[in-house]
Amino acid sequence: MNEEIAIAGVYVPTFALACACALAACFIASAANRKFIGVDIRRYAWHPALFDFAVFVILTKIFYAVLGKLPL
User: Fold this and answer.
1) What does the pLDDT average to over 56-67?
2) Which residue ranges traverse the bilayer (predicted)?
3) b/e string for 29-45 if b means 16 or more Cβ within 10 A?
4) Using one digit for the tens of pLDDT, what is the confidence trace for 9-43?
């Protein structure tokens, strides 16, 4: 597991990079969902902010696992 990833000579923690990637993926998925599908899935959730946070946590774990396996 890589604890740090060097980006342009700056060491960035893998978890911070995973959080940034997950946040971008959440924004893109939410915008695509509203634009192309036309149904706001958050409307059917019990608590929309909690649903968004759960999606963010799941995506963070996925990106952290993927970034940790990269041979950098």
Assistant:
1) 93
2) 6-32, 44-67
3) eeeeeeeeeeeeebeee
4) 888 888 999 999 999 999 998 888 878 877 777 77
Helix (H, G, I), strand (E, B) or coil at 24: helix
Give the separation between CA 59 and CA 67, rounded to whole angstroms.
12
Distance CA 45, CA 38 (A): 16
Q: How far is CA 39 from CA 31, 36, 42, 54, 72, in A?
A: 11, 9, 9, 19, 40
C-alpha to C-alpha distance for 34 and 37, rounded to whole angstroms: 6
CA angle, corner 63, sides to 65 and 60, nearest 5?
Answer: 105
Give CB contacts under 8 A, 24+ apart, made by 19-24. Answer: 19/60, 19/63, 21/59, 21/63, 21/67, 22/56, 22/59, 22/60, 22/62, 22/63, 23/56
